[in-house]
Amino acid sequence: RTKRFVEVYRQETNKLFDEVDLILTPATPEIAQKLGTVRVRRNGIDEAVGNAITRYTTFFNMTGHPALTMPCGMHREGLPIALQLVGRYFDEKTVLRTAHAIERSEKFSIPRPNVDK
Q1: Which of 8, 12, 35, 71 has the largest CB neighbor count within 10 A?
Q2: CA triple 79-61-93, angle to 5 deg
Q3: Residue 64 forms beta bridges with which residues?
Q4: Contact, 113 vs 79, CB < 8 A?
Q5: pLDDT > 70? residue 32
Q6: What digits encode the pLDDT tens for the residues 1-11?
Q7: How many CB atoms are located within 10 Å of the residue 26 CB?
Q8: Count of alpha carbons within 13 Å of 58, Cβ hemisphere only?
Q9: pLDDT digit string (tens) for 40-86?
Q10: Rounded (5°) CA angle 87-64-101
Q11: How far apart are CA 80 and CA 72, in angstroms?
Q12: For residues 50 and 65, is the Cβ–Cβ distance under 8 A?
């Protein structure tokens, strides 16, 4: 039964690439948590940090699409945020080239967080 669901997810995700070259998503639904945090509460649901922060990346791990995450800025609370780029099957080149172009962009500048706080 699980294999059937995964296959449906793969097929539906593949259809998206009929319209786009890449999918860009937030890397996580949450900002980075302070060191030592083990549980978070979101939308009234209490869950382990690991489950909360991997929600968006896990889907593409399951479907097998090439994906990468990269930092893209800082939250107003001074914690890093990241984006995820996802490509067609066997098109890692487009994912990597796009990430490289983003990093080289004049507007791409991420201050180093103050880890002493």
Answers
A1: 71
A2: 85
A3: none
A4: yes
A5: yes
A6: 889 999 999 99
A7: 15
A8: 8
A9: 888 888 989 888 888 899 999 999 999 999 998 888 887 888 999 99
A10: 25
A11: 8
A12: no
